[in-house]
Amino acid sequence: MMIYPLKFHPILKQTIWGGDKINQLKQITNGQPAVGESWEISAVEGFESVVSNGVYRGYTLPSLVRLLKDELVGTDNYTRFGAKFPLLVKFIDAHDDLSVQVHPDDGLAMQRHHCLGKTEMWYVLGADENAHLIAGFSRKISPKQYREMVTDGSFVDALYSYCVKPGDVYYIPAGRVHSLGKGTMVAEVQETSDITYRIFDYNRRDKDGHLRQLHVAEATDAIDFDDIAGEAKIDYQLIDNEPVEVVSSPKFTTSVYHLTEEVSCDYSDLDSFVILICTEGSCQVVMDAAQETFCAGETLLLPAATREVKLLPSPRATLLEVYT
What we know:
By secondary structure, this protein is mostly beta strands. The protein has two domains: 11-234, Jelly Rolls; 244-323, Jelly Rolls (Sandwich), CATH 2.60.120.10. 15% of the residues lie in helices and 39% in strands. The protein has seven helices and 21 strands. It has helices spanning 21-25, 61-68, 70-73, 75-81, 106-113, 143-152, 216-220; strands at 11-19, 35-41, 43-44, 47-48, 87-94, 100-102, 120-127, 132-137, 159-163, 169-172, 178-180, 184-191, 197-200, 233-234, 244-248, 253-259, 263-266, 274-287, 290-295, 299-302, 308-323. The strands form five sheets. The protein has a seven-stranded antiparallel beta sheet. The longest helix is centred in the middle third of the chain and has 10 residues, at 143-152. The radius of gyration is 20 Å and the shape is globular.
């Protein structure tokens, strides 16, 4: 196989709560309005990423996994998931509050939808003044109280709210009730799943004037009612030119790099692909004879067969490094 950093065409999604920050981040001129999400790496059926560079240009991500198998995703990943790439990477621009929602775990999602559940994390790219997000409960409530509070419109009062700033990291395992608030922009890493149970949507209507569908009953079995008191935010301290691990879970591991000089990464003992997400600045990635430059708002996929990589910021860059 030809080993090089893979780039993909972004999949831009318009939403009723989207804004213009993704177009700005990705330097898209004359872009479509109200872009709420940019799917950077996706194998979700109907929304498969397409390679935009090199000899595999034009391949969809699932077709590339079928072609390259464990050399692309790693032996363990290929054994577990086959041709189903296990992670989905997005940028999200919450120009307005997103719905309050929850995602099922793998067991419930497989039982109901024959797919993976959805554990995810957020890295905050930008935050307007007073921007916030919701994650978890602020106090103990029962499933009965949950249903009553959703009915009378007071459910948000039982949830834990965080003020956010750029660089914050939040971990959202399946079962954690959550919502991105107005003015928040994030990079999201999640399992490959598009299953969301919408609980409360501020009585918002879609483009046709209809109230959006809620999934209050379905969410009851998915919610972790013991998830209380501000456990979602991950505290960490950046160290220049060293990986700082912020999330380590059975689903994925994520580290933050703040680069001011060349750094070498040895992936020879890692049985996984590596995703690099540039959140600030610009960086050149060098693998043997192959190289690729990417900048804020771009994402690369390094095949599992990758051994050593050099990261050369120009002059500075902040990256997220993700693997399974």
